[in-house]
Fold:
Amino acid sequence: MTFSPRLLRLLVLVSLAAAAGAFWAPRARAVPSFARQTGWSCAVCHTIYPQLTPIGRLFKLEGYTTANYGALQELRQHIRRVAPLAISRVTPLSVFIQASDTYIAGGELNQFGSGGATQQAAVEFPEQVSLFYAGRISSHIGTFYHLTYTHTGGFGQDDSDVRWANHVHIVSPDGNSTLLYGADINNTPTEPDVWNSVPDWDWPFESSNYSPLRDIPLTFIQQSAGASEPLVGLGGYTAYLFGQEENHWLYIETDLYRSGVGIGAGTNTTFGAFGLGPTHNVAPYLRLAYEENYPHWNWEIGTLGMDTHVYTTAAASGPTDRFLDYGLDTQVQYLTFDNSFSFTAHASWIREIEDWYPVRSLSFDPNPVDTLNYADINGQVLWRHRYGGGLGFFDVWGTADPTLYGTDTGNPSALVSASGSPNTDGLTIEMDYLAAQNAEFSLQYSRFFRYLGAANDYNGLGRNASQNNVVSLLMWLAF
Structure:
């Protein structure tokens, strides 16, 4: 395996990201229904939302079932046997409202959100409204069910899961340990994860629908984040907590994904140039991670992989193309005991091998095999639960393929690479102010050093990477 010079450069820059994180910091918020259920403030489980503390990770691994029993009522019906039913006195519903005002340097709006319209700025009020049914259903079953409305796509199911969880304590001469285990059904690969170095939960956690960040080429597993693809997964996980004070964690998760029944939508894996069909049979997903916890510090290192075969047409028959994704990730987190200050840094790399041999028999003619890589490094801090921000570097590189990224894709001219290259890199800076733990205002800036293969005239029509630089003012409210 060879590493791109860009990846090596990013790995060197991790120290800069970590240092810069001390000057920028993000938000501290949580699904309010979880706070009502547990009686905990958002800051117990989150440094930022959706970024988790070790307590927040345990809450999710336990199936969202931890509860303040004073807020529950237990009903019993004596018909042949006792049938207990514990119901929360407060319905576990939450609402998120987001709005944004976005300014793009070159005036080109988001390809998928605007159909290629050209305009200097875009105001979205709301940008999206999310509805959650999130919390404990029984002593071992909980859910995080998420519906989102956007003005560009209407209502749709967002990343969600329902999980059953249990645990067993193990006593040994070397010390006590705990085995957490569970099963879940979800609609997004990496959604069950508890670290923010995987695609569904990675930073930046918010961006405008009209940000060019949403247009850069991504791997199949990244495009599945946020339930943008019609996938359904069924699987299980195990977390083994061992060592002194159970500060060593070993996490294993396996899932099988396939396209939802009746949905034959494309994947946009070909950068919008060709609509693929549903998955062929099931796509296996594997996740391994290890975490160590100390009084103030915790760190994680992990790997993941997914192997997906996709039909070339929506008819769900005939040849299939293959997308093999695998990657590495790590997370480092520092927390004060009162959570008045936190710092979290992430680094991740995902590589995809795309086998296009079957689709070449159709009118679409890419390279027989392409590769696509995505790497990013970012750091965030939070100070006094009110001031924060983040800094991150990202890099995309892969095989040049004029059919996927070149002039014959049919995409708007701003998203065409004259060299047929996906190579894109840049940075994102964010500053945050939390009026309360459930009300946040953010200023976000993304700068592109290269876009689709070049810094200048990347599309052959005079457009430069810097014309995609974007500034967004974001508002977030939760109740």
